[in-house]
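Morning, I've got a small favour to ask if you have a moment. I'm working through a protein record and want to make sense of it properly. The fold is given in discrete form, as structure tokens running alongside the sequence. Can you walk me through what the tokens say about the fold? Thanks so much in advance, here it is:
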Amino acid sequence: MNTNRPARRAILATGALLGAASLMQTAPVFAQGKAADVFPSRPVRMIVPFAPGGPTDIVARLLGQRLGDLWGQTVLIDNRAGAGGNLGVEIAARAAPDGYTILVTSSSFVVNPALYEKLRWDPFKSFVPVTNAATSPNLIVVHPSVPAKSMKDLVALVKSQPGKFSYASPGLGTTPQLSCEMLKAIAGVDIQHVPYGGAGPATTSVVGNQNPVGCMAQPPAVPHVQAGKLRALAITSAKRSASLPDVPTMVEQGFTNFVTDNMNGVFLPAGAAPALVARLHADILKALATPDLRERLQAQGLEPVGDTPQAFAAYVKQQIAQWTKVIKDAGIKVE
């Protein structure tokens, strides 16, 4: 009997270890081994790959503030503009998948794979989609000194003075720029593209009349339109915006099927645990459900979404296919 006791103890110890390993595999564990209900235990970094003031920055700051209140932790907004949004995305792709680095980015995420021959990140392999927090349509605006009062007027004006006009956009390959390139192709107008490092600087350039025309997402332009510093000629959504009800859509002005928008998506680095994705998604939905946050987003021309990770992943795939076709048809390349 005594000779069998060491063997029995070894078997029991092995069973205990296997049981513990099984629990570790099934429990919602992330953030370097800490349980889901402990996250976050320190400040969280939210990377925005654009300059401050643009729609994605606005979404990140509003969402970050509400998540910080919910978590009892500081959410730091880290603006990393550059390379058409690729710089910040690359930084996020290299981050640990522990939830302490979150990427909030625009539709450049679904455009850049077709725009750049070589990327240091992959939209499907480098990240885990969490949700599309909010969308916003694009606006075509002009400086008040431009006599055009409609898209028909603008097209006629530009055609009458070929090579004179330029338009500002948040950057090469952004959906505002692609929207104006679609306009150029449809209307046959000659207007020079001037890219900026985000919607904020692009909007400022039109307010200052450095560029008489601008194509940008709605949020940064709305306050200037309402103040009379910019004139909005058209919105690219399927219907008019509540924040700018007097601005007609492109479709209303005779541009059939001319509907484009911008996502403001939330992603985690690849390898993030399903429990972490579910926790972050649930907390974002709580934030988006608060009436004051929704009102603040809508006042900026942003529409809250909050779709599931699975639906968002499907949306990303569809958008990549859509914009790849537009880019190839327009012959747009990064120089």
Q: What stands out?
A: The CA atoms of residues 267 and 297 lie 20 Å apart. The chain has two domains: 34-135+262-330, 137-235. The first helix runs from residue 5 to 26.
